[in-house]
Design brief:
This protein has about 150 residues and is α+β, with helices and mostly antiparallel strands. Helices cover about 20% and strands about 45% of the residues. It has an eight-stranded antiparallel beta sheet with strand order 1-6-8-7-3-4-2-5. The radius of gyration is 14 Å and the shape is globular. It starts with a strand and ends with a strand.
């Protein structure tokens, strides 16, 4: 799987969060539930100070047993009481571009990424959904590097 090394500025994300992990049998249900809450639950429409229209799925706060997943939108200023606020740190990232079915393409890409020998920092990996077509979506995946 091809990728390029990019440097990113710090980003602030506002949305909804939950804790899960790769070995959690409910992981897919938990992450899917966050996306549902963002869109069908109306959270997305109330997010203020959007930088762009791209949805972001952020994986942060890694521990031995799991990580925090935040599904939301990048904002210029966090002014959304009651919603999770997370920071994607500035730094070096491996950027992967994938296209296809929104769920399957991302799941397949993560399956490959977890097998790669990347010098990961585990400070904040994220998916940025560049289009909203569920069957032919373009998604950029960013993996934080040391």
């Amino acid at each position: 799987m091809n990728y390029e090394i990019v440097s990113l500025e710090e980003k602030t994300i506002v949305g909804v969060s939950a804790v899960t992990g790769n070995s959690d049998p409910e992981m897919g249900k938990i992450i899917g539930g966050l996306w549902e809450k963002l869109y069908q639950g109306g959270v997305n429409n109330g997010i203020k100070n959007r930088v762009n229209a791209y949805a972001i799925g952020l994986y942060s706060d890694y521990t031995d047993s799991g990580y925090c997943v935040t599904v939301g939108i990048e904002v210029s200023k966090a002014e959304n009481p009651g919603l999770a606020v997370k920071t994607i740190p500035a730094g070096k990232y491996a950027k992967f571009l994938v296209q296809g079915d929104m769920v399957k393409a991302v799941a397949d890409a993560w399956g490959e990424i977890w097998q790669m020998n990347l010098d990961r920092s585990f400070t904040g990996d994220f998916e940025e959904y560049l289009s909203s077509d569920p069957e032919n979506c373009e998604i950029a995946l960013y993996i934080a590097l040391k």
